[in-house]
Amino acid sequence: MVMKIKEVANIAGISVRALHHYDQIGLLSPTNTTEAGYRLYTDDDLELLQQILFFREIGFPLKKIKEIIYSPSFDRQEALELHQKMLVEKRRRLDQMIATVEKTIQHMKGDIPMSNKEKFEGFDFSENPYEQEARERWGDQAVDESNAKLANMSKEEQSDLSKSMNAIYTKLAALRHDPPHSEEAQTAIQEWYVFLNKMGSYSLDAFKGLGQMYVADERFTKNIDQFGKGLAKFMCEAMAIYADTHKKQD
């Protein structure tokens, strides 16, 4: 059985553009094409696509996925078993996050006490839950670099990274009632820009776009505003000012 690219995109839940990209970089080239140049995918192609998407789900960059799946030593069953273990761990983290949300709701109602430590149980910034959206907006480079650096870090280094991130959020939260163009706000937002660029390669436009996503996507807003209501909006405005100001200086 063969399928056209649009059919494959629909069944796999990804975009036609992504499949074109996979073909262009040699990650997944369809077995057959028609005389008119239309891509035709076989069942074997779909199995390979499933494997690619499993690797994507757990955060591997495309370049690394290509190296892995085309290696002579690649064992698909072994890889699937590893995927299963990692996804089970991801589910465990989500269950913990759900439990934290439920406790927070009870705490807000006055039914139970909740310590500051308990409020952040389940958060893990070593993974980016919006990776696909970031890739679609700005391409793979910054995200792939971030993933590669995270993959080479020890658990202790990842923990230190998370603490640094939280410290910047906390500092910005304390400034969120100040004008976003103030010197203090711009100094703090520069720390955030520098921090992000330690993990990847974020241009000023990407930095500004990320800030816009903080308010456009309620998941970002809720996550960030846990450090202080209105923080996402403040960061969005401060990031836009920072980007525009420094683009003029370049």
UniProtKB/TrEMBL annotation:
Gene Ontology MF terms in the entry: DNA binding; DNA-binding transcription factor activity
Residues annotated as domain HTH merR-type: 2-71
Record keywords: Activator, DNA-binding, Transcription, Transcription regulation
Entry keyword DNA-binding: yes
Xref: Gene3D superfamilies: 1.10.1660.10, Antibiotic binding domain of TipA-like multidrug resistance regulators (1.10.490.50)
InterPro entries found in the cross-reference section: DNA-bd_dom_put_sf, MerR-type_HTH_dom, MerR_fam, TipA-like_antibiotic-bd, TipAS_dom
Record protein name field: MerR family transcriptional regulator
Keyword set includes RNA-binding: no
Organism, scientific name: Pseudobacillus wudalianchiensis
Source taxonomy: Bacteria, Bacillati, Bacillota, Bacilli, Bacillales
